[in-house]
């Protein structure tokens, strides 16, 4: 299994965390890692045969926006290029609301029509990964010019603040700083991102905690959980069961925990 990461062009850094390529082609069936609930969105471009989820074959290029645990079917050949967008930023590239993107797999053609078809042709005919990424970046910069949201409330700053400050319940403080009532904040947040701010904060906190544990290869979870805002051990155990279906010890000791979609900063 080979993983390669690429930084986006500086103009896209505010919106995209990274491009990355997964390649697994040794012929033996490989159990793909579970994808836990997340706060961002990815677009997957399959460079070989698309993988399947619940035995349903996905499109050649599609969104991937899990808000609950998702299992990709085991496969003997996986090869894809992914764009990992930062939380909430995909709204600057299209007019489709997040409530239609969460937990769905929309094809790029569903989103951008003929423009996506032309992009796919460029990707298919490009010789190497660098050329494919350059074609995608040029396409996204054009979409950014067309669709970038002009908002009276700085939702990008709000999302960034919530994602980076998972240690405490900052929801009411955040709405106050934005100059809007908490009720209006909840309503506006839900309409833009398809989930409540409370659920977003819960997912972000769990994601931050489990990422730290997986990258450090440790099952000694309690101090990390407390550091990231869980009240006590039982609180983290309850949340872990909600998001993984297992206790922290059960999840962190499984073989699949060694393979995951969390990466160190680039």
From TrEMBL:
PROSITE patterns: HTH_ARAC_FAMILY_2. It holds the Pfam family DUF6597. InterPro entries: AraC_XylS_family_regulators (IPR050204), DUF6597 (IPR046532), Homeodomain-like_sf (IPR009057), HTH_AraC (IPR018060). Residues 156-254 form the HTH araC/xylS-type domain. This is Helix-turn-helix domain-containing protein. Keywords: DNA-binding, Transcription, Transcription regulation.
């Amino acid at each position: 299994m080979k993983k390669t990461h690429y930084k986006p062009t500086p103009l896209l850094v505010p919106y995209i965390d990274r491009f990355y390529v997964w390649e697994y082609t040794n012929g033996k069936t490989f159990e793909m890692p579970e994808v836990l609930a997340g706060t961002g969105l990815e677009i997957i471009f399959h460079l070989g045969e698309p993988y399947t989820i619940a035995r349903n074959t996905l499109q050649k290029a599609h969104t991937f926006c899990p808000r609950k645990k998702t299992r990709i079917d085991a496969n003997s050949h996986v090869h894809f290029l992914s764009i990992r967008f930062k939380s909430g930023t995909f709204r600057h590239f299209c007019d489709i609301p997040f409530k239609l993107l969460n937990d769905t797999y929309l094809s790029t053609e569903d989103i951008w029509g003929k423009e996506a078809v032309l992009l796919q042709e460029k990707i298919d005919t490009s010789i190497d990964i660098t050329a494919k990424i350059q074609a995608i970046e040029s396409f996204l910069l054009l979409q950014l010019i067309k669709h970038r949201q002009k908002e009276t409330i700085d939702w990008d700053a709000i999302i960034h603040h919530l994602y980076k400050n998972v240690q405490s319940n900052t929801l009411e403080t955040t709405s106050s700083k934005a100059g809007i009532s908490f009720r209006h904040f909840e309503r506006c947040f839900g309409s833009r991102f398809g989930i409540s701010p409370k659920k977003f904060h819960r997912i972000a906190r769990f994601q931050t905690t489990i990422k730290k544990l997986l990258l450090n290869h440790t099952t000694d979870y309690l101090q990390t959980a407390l550091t990231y805002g869980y009240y006590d051990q039982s609180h983290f155990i309850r949340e872990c069961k909600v998001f993984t279906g297992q206790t922290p010890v059960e999840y962190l000791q499984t073989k699949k925990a060694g393979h995951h979609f969390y990466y160190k900063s680039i």
